[in-house]
Design goal:
The chain is mainly beta. The protein contains 15 helices and 90 strands. The protein has a five-stranded mixed sheet with strand order 86-87-88-1-90. A five-stranded mixed sheet has the order 18-19-20-21-22. The protein has a five-stranded antiparallel sheet with strand order 53-57-56-55-54. The radius of gyration is 34 Å and the shape is globular. A hairpin with a 4-residue loop joins strand 28 (443-448) and strand 29 (453-460). The chain is 7% helix and 42% strand.
Length: 1431
């Protein structure tokens, strides 16, 4: 059987919601990406600081100089300067950034989010209501103690009697949605055809009493005395909700037969919603006009009854959405495809037509703005300045506009739409928006399923007389940006949901525009998306031949790269994906003896002759200083250990002589700077040496125990100025401090525990944000930096000391070596529990320039990493201390380190040397930790991601250090096991953190459909679409009236364009335009026979297209065959030496060409054209000769062939999968087997496993079906019916693209007899997964592990992972032979690391493994990208 593994999480944002979730004052954003829920906090930083952070290379800053002209409003100073002397004023605007708080995978599909203010939550913030696809709701709240989302209640509405009529389809087939009352009194979940589930919520007494109290009439509101709670009978013990009930909409009103949409309205005392519906079917084909009605109902939650208070009939039939608007506009905005209509609380309607089609669609009275020619299908509307009557309109192509309401008094008298000019940011959004959420006064989150999601900010352009004086902000003063008034807009933030109706002053309103000046938009932040994945292929990285880059990149470039055609419209791009970081090489050197690197920036000693009059010079001050020296630990061929020092150059290093540095002193364990960068400290195995800025030896501190005379050797070291921590081979610790005279002195260990306990590992950490400090350390909302010492005892206990106090630890947690999911000071392990050996611990900051936070990283003997996040939560009624408030929560990290290959040789002893973790404060803007060894990796995190462990491409690493010079800014240097030293940087324009992969996006600017790679020339071909206005053919002989037709608002049709892309520069080097109305349906590079005489074969590009010129004319198909030839390149652009050259074309009279594939052994191609599949051969005259054909059913969505065989698959979009065989000499093409004829398929492919051949088919319900062909089975009718082995639900990540690839086996595993395969799957949600075949014994054991893990793991969102994989459709697939067998769920196995050591051992023992290590080996070979090592 098979195993399903997730490789990349979904990235398409379907829903978003802003609310205070983690606390009452928090500003959070909840983002749903199908089966992934992310919770963000918002952070505001200066736009000037953000611009500096976004620079690809951060040059060393010079001392900021004050320019008095910045406040020169009259420009007098500048008038004396030349015209070229322009002063750039300081940017005083703010940028809103997203900071990830939690990431929660869900075993389901989120279809709605709602914010509810309940009586009491653990965090004090609001509660979150989630709606799922299968008629389920989950009420959740934030638990600050566990730092996660916690389920309060689950609500199911799947009863059979609610299905209504027997002909109704399952609930998941309908448009289901969730709406919440603005007053948090109830929520409504519309599911099925006409079902409305109402979930009421209890309100606090303050909300229920005196709702109609008017302070102007009734006087001041009296203060309510708190009621005494007797015998613990508190109302907080009550559930926050009351029992829900389901309403059938026709019971509310008989006309609500076909509901379209509903929304709860503002400013009503009772829950009130407006619903858009019709008593007739809304099909446009019926030709009925204006049959929709809008009605408003008030709910009585106590009586479960409703009252109709408003009705507007005769509305246009193309309305599809209701948007409730708060005061002062009020009422609801009805959105149609061609118009916008506002209905106020009295039923008065005002509308505007935005194109010429509105007059033909409706007779409803509308203001005419048809000259805008807008298409409102799929548009999204968010609140811009609702107090000024302004809404933001985002069209389906990303164009921005403003909807303005003209308000007279308290009523809306008109509505207008205005597009935003491109120079003001009107084209910043590149794709259709799926959701919007207001984040702040001048920022909004715009989610998209077709491209990157963004945080959009705006400001008003003001005249010179209204501008404030520009200010220069000194970035080095350490001022908190939130404390500075950097916003141009000084008005207070109005409450959007206030109970009072604010009347807008007439002077503020001018045709709906509130404030003076135009709005200007800009992007504040971006969430990466590779959705939707339209197609993908494998290619190779390319460089200019014989270039220096090609030479430098040897050994650090992957064999292949995964190229995905992603996005829609203007957001389309190529996403180049690799599993490891492929660094940008600056310098490459042979350095076989290097075993460790330490670079440092140090101040030179100030000569006495200069005294105190020294200027701020780079030789004496560290401000913006590059690294100057590098200490290298060496081991020569004879095993002799030395150390050497080098002077750093722009892109390398050179030997430094004439100093007091002694290379023969021994092997360097650690090195760094102390004494405010005045001293270089070199830690050797037997002593510590201190040097000044000129490498003059100032002190030697020997490792000598004066009492015993022993000389313990230093094993590991940690430096945090002004302290030094050494762990020695006798399990003792040595702590030293540098004094004011820059002399190192040992710190007396007053705590007896420090002297008597045997210590295994330890580290120092500079706590700057107060994570490990008591609350008393806060001064002026800032924490003083404090050095914390973390020690791990051999018994597995964690001790934390706050230096310089060594009298007692501030925190002790027993049982760190048990690796529990949550660790606190009160954790007590059971006797006999299994422990794990830990080699190293490190506490370091992870993050970027936006957000950094400390993490505890544990290193296991296998080089696996366990990452803990410290969480502070002070329970009520407890003493405020670190022991009661600090807990460590385990972070998700499914990455398993590569097992080193055992080698036999003379250098085996040298290679087993332990290299400690290296914390790097700034590597290309990231604060990260590097794991050296056989599985080199970065522990890297951005503000929008969880910590990721991402490998470094290449061999194992012996030593690594940050490297910051003029030629390699914020880079790093490392030496691999082959003795090659490289000075490198992280590659530019590449995202590592959000998906845990190396992702480089190359924008194309036009709608991409297909992607192919041409191996002989090393180029990519992107099949793209451009959309052009369409007119019916005027020369048609049967429709003479078409010649007289005039349309002012024509539709658009796609036209195909082939773009030849060079992977050297990632630019389009040639375009090949197809005929008008000719769309690209499929495209592949095929190895075809080009000559019948010589039998020559060549790799060619085959393109299948469809020509559609209106629904009255039949669709015709066409096959293009093109070659890529070499031409003379453009001057200065050697990569432009390739062109697309057409060599064959075949017109298909009936039906488009929807699938192509290579078939057989003679270089022929399989063409799916209309309702036929034909095998065609390329003739020398440019035609395609058919040699065999097969009649198909409806529409072939894809065709696959098994290489070097005649076996092929055809997936029909309506009639299932067909398994066929093709033979040559003579040519025959016949059906071997079929699946059930009622199976709508998206894609099908083969998955061979030795002699077994599985057929994998994905249907529209998001289920993977595994089928087989066995003519000997008695129920298969001699093979005519395919056998159904099992099904596996992957919704909402149903695959639409597949690719069969060879599977790599870890070097520690035996080589199988037949080459294994892996099937790569990609879905429109941006999700990438794989399917592999497993040996029977491995399959049975891993399936048992999955069943053992499910009860142990915490279910997220109230969902059942096992039930989710069973699926909900009950379609017949084939001859049932499943017999309870299921696909192994790799998503559950990937959570194996979440368990503690004891649970892991227990699971491994129950299943039958010899130990945890054996189970780990099987998981390492299965999970992640281990089977795709060439990427």
């Amino acid at each position: 059987m098979q195993a399903y593994t997730e490789l990349a999480a979904p990235s398409a944002v379907s829903h978003s919601l802003s609310l205070p979730l983690t606390s009452a004052s928090a500003s959070n954003l909840v983002v749903a990406k199908g089966s992934l829920l992310q919770i963000f906090a918002t952070q505001t930083i200066s736009a000037e600081i953000d611009a500096q952070n976004n620079q690809t290379s951060s040059a060393p800053k010079a001392e900021p100089d004050f320019d008095f002209r910045a406040n020169d409003d009259d420009g007098l100073e500048a008038s004396f300067l030349g015209g070229e002397s322009i002063l750039v004023r300081t940017d005083r605007t703010n940028n809103t950034k997203l900071v990830l708080v939690a990431e929660i995978p869900l075993a389901g599909t989120v279809i709605g989010l709602a914010r509810l203010k309940t009586k009491k939550t653990k965090s004090g913030g609001d509660a979150l209501l989630l709606a799922y696809k299968a008629a389920k709701m989950c009420l959740a709240e934030w638990n600050p103690e566990k730092n996660t989302l916690e389920t309060i209640s689950i609500h199911y509405y799947e009863k059979e009697e609610l299905h209504g009529a027997p002909w109704e389809v399952p609930f998941g087939e309908y448009f289901n949605f969730l709406e919440a009352d603005p007053g948090s009194r109830c929520a409504a979940f519309k599911f099925g055809s006409r079902n409305l589930a109402i979930l009421p919520f209890r309100q606090s007494e303050e909300d229920l009493e005196m709702d109609d109290w008017d302070e102007d009439l009734d006087g001041p509101r009296p203060v309510k005395e708190p009621a005494a709670v007797a015998n613990g009978d508190s109302d907080s013990l009550e559930a926050t909700y009351t029992p829900s009930f389901v309403l059938r909409l026709p019971m509310l009103d008989p006309s609500l037969v076909h509901p379209v949409h509903l929304a709860f309205l503002h400013e009503y005392r009772e829950p009130t919603f407006g619903i858009l519906s019709s008593s007739q079917s809304p099909a446009h084909s019926l030709g009925q006009k204006d049959h929709l009605s809008y009605k408003v109902f008030t709910l009585d939650l106590q009586q479960r009854a409703s009252t109709a208070i408003l009705s507007v009939t005769g509305l246009p039939r193309d309305l599809y959405q209701v948007i409730a608007l708060p005061s002062p506009v009020g009422g609801a905005l009805l959105v149609g495809q061609n118009e916008l209509i506002h209905v106020d609380q009295s039923g008065k309607a005002n509308g505007v037509a935005v194109n010429a089609m509105a007059k033909q669609m409706t007779s409803f009275s509308l203001t005419d703005q048809a000259d805008l020619d807008l298409r409102l299908e799929g548009c999204t509307i968010g609140q811009l300045y609702i107090e000024n009557g302004e809404l933001l309109l985002i069209l389906n192509d990303g164009q921005l506009g403003i909807i303005s309401f003209r308000i007279d008094g308290r009523t809306v008298s008109g509505i207008s739409v205005k597009l935003i000019a491109t120079e003001n940011g009107g084209s910043l959004v590149k794709s259709r928006a799926s959701c919007t959420s207001r984040l702040g006064k001048t920022s909004m989150f715009i989610g998209s399923e077709d491209g990157d999601s963004i945080v959009l900010g705006w400001s008003r352009k003001q005249g010179q007389e209204k501008r404030r004086k520009a200010r220069v902000v000194d970035l080095d003063l350490g001022l908190d940006v939130d404390d500075l008034d950097l916003d141009d807009d000084g008005e207070d933030d109005d409450d959007l949901y206030g109970t009072e109706s604010t009347t807008i002053k007439p002077s503020q309103i001018t045709n709906g525009a509130g404030k003076s000046g135009e709005l200007s938009f800009r992007i504040h932040d971006t969430l990466l998306s590779i959705a939707p994945i339209r197609n993908f292929t494998s290619g190779k990285a390319s460089f200019h031949p014989d270039s220096e880059e090609a030479t430098l990149s040897q050994g650090v470039t992957a064999d292949l790269q995964l190229a995905c055609a992603v996005g829609r419209g203007k957001a389309s791009s190529l996403a180049i994906i690799n599993r490891n970081i492929q660094p940008k090489i600056i310098g490459r050197f042979e350095f076989p003896e290097a075993r460790g690197f330490w670079t440092m920036s140090v101040k030179k000693p100030i000569p006495k002759s200069l005294g105190a009059n020294v200027a701020a010079d780079s030789d004496y001050e560290p401000f913006g200083q590059y690294d100057k020296y590098m200490i290298v630990a060496k081991v020569d061929l004879d095993g002799y250990e030395t150390s050497d020092v080098y002077a750093l150059t722009a892109a390398g290093f050179e030997t430094l002589g004439g100093t007091e540095f002694d290379p023969a002193a021994g092997f360097t364990v650690d090195a760094g700077t102390m004494g405010k960068q005045m001293r270089i400290v070199q830690v050797l195995k037997s002593e510590v040496r201190s040097y000044d800025g000129d490498l003059g030896l100032t002190q030697i501190l020997p490792m000598l125990d004066e009492e015993t005379g022993a000389e313990p050797r230093v094993v590991s070291s940690s430096i945090a100025d002004p302290y030094l921590l050494l762990i020695r081979d006798d399990s003792s610790v040595f702590i030293a401090q540098i004094d004011g005279d820059n002399e190192l002195e040992e710190v007396e260990k007053t705590d007896n525990v420090l002297l008597t306990t045997k210590w295994q590992a330890g580290c120092l950490y500079t706590d700057t944000n107060g994570t490990f400090q008591a609350n008393s350390s806060i001064k002026g909302n800032k924490f003083e930096p404090k050095i914390m010492m973390f020690l791990l005892s051999t018994a597995g206990a964690l001790h934390i000391y706050a230096l310089p106090d060594l009298s007692k630890p501030v925190y002790v947690a027993e049982g760190l070596s048990y690796i529990p999911p949550s660790l606190s000071s009160g954790y007590t392990p059971r006797r006999g529990m299994v422990r794990e050996t830990l080699r190293e611990i490190m506490v370091a900051d992870l993050g970027d320039s936006i957000s950094q936070s400390p993490y505890l990283i544990l290193r296991h003997p296998t080089d696996d990493l366990t990452i803990y996040k410290p969480v502070r939560f002070q329970p009520e009624g407890t003493e405020s201390s670190l022991k009661t408030s600090l807990s460590l929560q385990k972070c998700t990290n499914p990455t398993l380190a590569q097992t080193p290959v055992e080698t036999t040789g003379d250098d085996t002893v040298q290679e087993s040397r332990f290299v400690p973790l290296r914390a790097c404060a700034n590597v290309n803007g990231y604060s990260t930790v590097f794991l050296p060894g056989s599985s080199p990796s970065f522990v890297i995190k951005s503000s929008k991601s969880i910590p990721r462990v991402i490998g470094l491409q290449g061999l194992g690493v012996r030593g690594m250090s940050p490297f910051h010079t003029e030629g390699c800014e914020r880079g790093f240097i490392y030496a691999d096991t082959d003795g090659i030293a490289r000075v490198t940087q992280l590659p530019p324009d590449t995202n590592f953190t959000e998906l845990g992969l190396s992702v480089k996006k190359v924008p194309l600017g036009c709608d991409v459909r297909e992607i192919a790679y041409h191996h002989p020339t090393g180029t990519y071909i992107a099949g793209c679409m451009t959309y052009e206005p369409f007119e019916l053919p005027r020369d048609d002989d049967y429709h003479k009236e078409w010649a007289r037709e005039t349309i002012s608002f024509p539709p658009t049709l796609a036209r195909g364009v082939l773009n030849l892309i060079s992977p050297i520069s990632w630019t389009i080097i040639h375009q090949f335009d197809l005929e008008s109305c000719e769309s690209i349906e499929c495209m592949k590079t095929l190895h075809l026979e080009v000559s019948e005489d010589t039998k020559e074969r060549r790799m060619l590009l085959a393109v299948g297209t469809a020509l559609s010129k209106g629904e009255d004319l039949p669709i015709r198909g066409r096959v293009h065959v093109l070659d890529i030839v070499t031409v003379i390149p453009e001057p200065g652009k050697p990569e432009t030496n390739k062109r697309l050259k057409p060599i064959a074309r075949e017109d298909i009279p009936r039906g488009g060409v929807t699938a192509l594939s290579e078939i057989g052994s003679q270089g022929l191609m399989l063409v799916a054209q209309g309702q036929k599949c034909m095998v065609r051969g390329l003739k020398e005259d440019g035609s395609l000769l058919p040699v065999a054909f097969l009649d198909m059913s409806c529409h072939v969505s894809n065709a696959r062939t098994l290489p070097k065989t005649g076996l092929c698959l055809m997936a029909d979009a309506f009639k299932g999968v067909w398994f066929a065989g093709y033979t040559e000499e003579p040519y025959t093409f016949k059906i071997l087997g079929k699946s059930n004829g009622q199976l709508p398929l998206l894609v099908a492919d083969f998955l061979p496993d030795g002699d077994d051949l599985a057929i994998v088919a994905a249907d529209t319900d998001g289920e993977l079906h595994i089928l087989g062909f066995n003519p000997e089975h008695p129920k298969s009718l001699q093979g005519h019916l395919l056998l159904h082995r099992t099904s596996f639900s992957v919704t909402p990540n149903e695959p639409t693209s597949t690719m069969l690839l060879p599977r790599t086996v870890p070097p520690t595993h035996p080589t199988p007899d037949s080459p294994p395969h892996i099937l790569l799957l990609a879905s429109p949600s941006g999700h990438i997964s794989s399917l592999v075949s497993l040996p029977e014994t491995t399959y049975r054991r891993l399936l048992s592990v999955t069943n053992q893990l499910l009860p142990q793991l915490t279910p997220h969102g109230g969902l059942n992972a096992k039930a989710h994989r069973l699926g909900e459709s009950h379609r017949a697939v084939g001859v049932e032979t499943a017999a309870g067998r299921a696909i192994v769920d790799g998503a559950v196995l990937a959570r194996w690391a979440e368990l503690g050591a004891a649970k892991r051992a227990e699971v491994a023992g129950k299943v039958g493994y010899d130990g945890v290590s054996e189970l780990r080996e099987e998981l390492q070979a299965l999970l992640g990208w281990s089977g795709l090592a060439y990427f």
